[in-house]
Hints:
heterodimer, A: alpha/beta, 7 helices, 31% strand, globular, B: mainly alpha, 14 helices
Amino acid sequence: MGPFKAAVCSITACVCLSLTGCGQQQTLAQREIVRAVFLERQKAECKAVLLVEDTDLPEGESGYKTADGTGDTFEKAICEAELSLDGTPFYGLMDLVTMPLEADWETVTQAGQLLYEQAQPAPEMTLFLLDAKDFPLPKSAGELYDILCAATKTYKLHGGLEGLFVQQDFCALPVWQEEGMGFAFLRRGQQPVRLDSGLEAQLAAVLCGQIRHLESYYAQESAYCAADTTVQWDAEKENINILLHLRKTSLADLSGQERPQSDLESILETELQSAFQRLNQTAGDIRADPFRLNFWKTSVMETTVQNPLPQLIVEIEP
Amino acid sequence: MKREKADLFPALLIGLMANVFLKGQTSYWVRPGVVTAPLSILLLAMVAYAFSCCWNTGTQGFLRWGFAALLAVGSALELLRLWQLFDCVYANSVGLLGVCFTVLVPVIYLRRVSSIAQTSNVVFWLLVGAAALLLVSVLDRLRVVNLQTVPLAGTTLQEALTGQLTLYPELLLPALWASSRSKKIDHPARLAVAVVGLDLAIHLLLELFFGAAMPGHDNPVHTAAQTGALSVFNRLEWLQLVLWSAAVSVKLALYLYAAVRLVGGRTGTTENNAVGLDRFPLYFVVMLLLCVGMRKMDLGRTLVWHNLACWTFAGLVIGKGVVEWVLSKQRFAR
Lengths: 318, 334
């Protein structure tokens, strides 16, 4: 290549370089790594609290700092919180989002959309509806983050931002309150249905594919059960069977009557069956399909079956 | 000698895989997609075969330059698509120039056609491995109930056909070096089966993953990859990004090789060099300028226009070939 051509190429490359915005990047150290976003509503005002990793601590230590903002929408609240940070927020390592307990389908999906579009986080994160009365924010944000992360591991929670949108007009979310984990059904255009009872809420979460571990009191808190769960669907031409396997089951009698294990198992199965009936009733009331019966109805069952009633079969293994 | 033996089929496959993996958005539901897939395969294979047959007869300069221009714009669009993906995932961390360097510098090594063939074999199997890893890492998030039971109506079938009937330049490229009649049939048919099959498989994976939300996602394959986690790796999207960059490099090298064959130059058809080193800065600058010029365009719409241009170009060549064949028959009859 001749010197003239080389000069032309170099000049062109320089022009391109200046046009392509080289040198505007920010180093990783200048970013604020957001680990969790807590959204809450106070009357007509929206509030966002960002839990950010404290990178100023000495090596080996870890801690958090918070930034909060308010606005008439969650978008404005998050923007205000971002502005109070020292650097540019980085959402790629965020693994927790909480939303207000009273949030309906519209609020939850709008907030979910906002997080996808504006913050662009990694979508592997856990979502909770949170009763903020029990956990004043931003004071207890760090402690709450640790509690919820521990709960995620305990219950083998398997949510994710994409879980909000897998059905067009319905989503289900775990609820965290002082008593522990609950569950909520959110249907477009309707009031959310919250399930506060431990076993019923956890059964709903298991059947929705969100948790894989049950840990709850039952029999009016006279017994305690902990088990890993797997769910199998067996659709036939006229009915649908849901096989709930409880593995590594540990049942404890708290009544002091020393009931045999078979009695505890039988009581647990009865309670699970009645909880399942109530869940079906609730789903029918809000015209939702949390357990995705419509898929089996369309794919496997005969078209003459209008409203298939699923049967729950419980198998308990020690 | 190496060129005669070098098989560019894996490189063509990589180009198609990159197209499918880097698609900005999904375009149809799987159920109608399965129904329309045989027709799409047949149409694409027929067009690619017809193009391959007619190209030998239609080698005028303007067609050669037209094809080269399609390849150049296609290369710039690939770079812009990768840049948008990087920008979306790691906002403000990688500029367009950075992406151009990352992708185009390996093309210096890939100027030789034997290098393209050898590298594409390695990258192909790495991509297959990465796809398997992606599948394993998101396996526990795939739910069969997420499959949508959409009716097989005219609209959904039309959407599926439109989505599958993308005429990628890779389907037309074998025409440039297919030496025998059997290769002219074999390569387009295999490529058409590969592109529609892979597209359908990716749509199936994404529908099992996203359910009803699938059409609304930007960069859906990457979003799924971000969620994937194995016990060894927390997140795997970096692996996908590295391999996708490598795949785009191979694809661009193949386009460059094809473009040089089309517009001619110092390198003839018997040399192993696809492009001389002295010309590489010119190629780099042209790509950079194209990217800078097109960076503000709506990428989705530009890709649609590029696809339309490919169809029009293929139609032109096939039409010209048919007219020439008819005229030659008439001359022969007289």
